[in-house]
Amino acid sequence: MNEHHDHGAHAPIVSRETPGEWEILEIAVRELAIAKGLITADDHRRLLEGMDAANPALGAKVVAHAWVDEAYRARLVADGSVAFELGVDNYDRTNLIVLENTPRVHNLVVCTLCSCYPRPILGLPPDWYKSPAYRSRAVRWPRAVLAEFGTVVPDDVSVLVHDSPARGTASPDQGGSRRPPYFGGPVGFRLAARRPERVAALVVQNANAYEDGVTEVLRSVVLRAWTERSPETLAGLRPLLELPSTKRQYLEGVADPSLVSPDAWQHAQWGMERPGNKDIQLALHANYGSNVERYEQWHDYFRRHQPPTLVVWGKGDFVFSEGGAHAYARDLKTIETHVLEGAGHFALETHAPEIARHIREFLRRQRT
Amino acid sequence: VSAFAKGQAVRIADRLTVGHTRVPSYVRGAQGAIERVLREFLIPEDDAFGRPDGRRLTLYRVRLAARDLWPQYRGATSDEVQLEIYEHWLEPIEEVSP
User: Fold this and answer.
1) Are A251 and A343 spatial neighbours (Cβ–Cβ below 8 Å)?
2) Mean pLDDT for each 10-residue chunk of chain A (368 residues)?
3) Mind giving me the DSSP string for A135-193?
4) pTM, full prediction
5) Among the listed residues A70, A59, A54, A79, the one whose alpha carbon sits nearest the alpha carbon of residue A280
6) How far is it, in rounded angstroms, from Cα A348 to Cα A147?
7) Which of B35, B59, B68, B81 to mutate to test the interface with A (most CBs of A within 10 A)?
8) What ipTM was assigned to the predicted interfaces of this complex?
9) Do residue A166 and residue B26 have CB atoms under 8 angstroms apart?
């Protein structure tokens, strides 16, 4: 792309920052260690490269794999070194212990003495992990610390704080429960059903909560991977992660495709192609059935708490059909439903101004 | 052969130390139970000063009730702190007969 980038002469790039005390100490110790032949400059470079190459996506890949492969999960929890089977380089020979969050247990990991961290699978620890505030508060007020991160752990769930000052480095699986939530709609319904008092109203756009909206394509591919889990049904999910499927979500059912910026699906697919991300997406798809299992729970929440609800629905959505839009009226009393002709699954791509108007008017009516 | 078994009640020694150790002061003197037995590692107090003589000691994961550790603790009674302690810092708790 940068065909005209100028590689001509320019002033040398000079850092004017004075090295800090620790930096000087590091340089001195490193140069001494190399001079004495304890390590070579090459060892040092390789170690730095290994540290730079590791990032949280590796850990996410391990966790995602455990979600979809029960035998792997059992082995991983029994022996953390199983995490390094998936092409993850255990460059510092971390002794890994994998902790599993369950409906009864939430784990929190800290190293009170320093900043031990499972670097090969998560990369460098974030600065807050090393801060005295986190290290001292995590063992004393774990629930308050978790709440500050947005995770409120109910009283009937045990919080286990794992202090890792010695040799076994635990893996902080901050990703939450084993059954992960899926995209916006189901996440929202799960949260709302759990904390109804915090929800003033619902705005629903092609987010399904009824069997009525489950299309054949969703049932025969995605939900089958949940009800009949096998290597074959899981493999059936793979094509959903490729460009044609991504593009289809944006374009199918859209009357005027020129309204959809090609950047939309290109960018979505770019995100999908990041290393490790497809395994995560695969796990999310494989567990989508756990949302359908909650439909009745959500209906119960609707009936009991009656949140005022606006439903806007792209009529051409091939994932969730129009029936899903109308079904909400069975359980909710204060509801308005707008089915948008010529809009698909991502209805905002083509009908943003119209949807924004519906939202504004709906919210105005709720206030008065 | 490790001195303690999974589930066994233990006390973490309450010692003053000079120099490097891997036992945070907030757990010294605390009572708990062995959560799991890990393998043997070089003794950290020796290792840290570059004088390991090859002796190894078993490392354990010890579970401590948060309520016992922090008398004012406000959370679930089942909340715990778990951490790794080397064998030479653990003492058995004598069963008291009624």
Assistant:
1) no
2) 57 75 90 93 88 85 87 91 84 83 91 83 87 92 92 92 66 31 75 86 93 93 92 93 92 93 85 85 91 95 94 94 96 96 93 92 82
3) HHHHHHSHHHHHHHTT----TTSEEEEEE--SSEEEE--TT--SS---SHHHHHHHHHH
4) 0.54
5) A59
6) 32
7) B81
8) 0.90
9) no
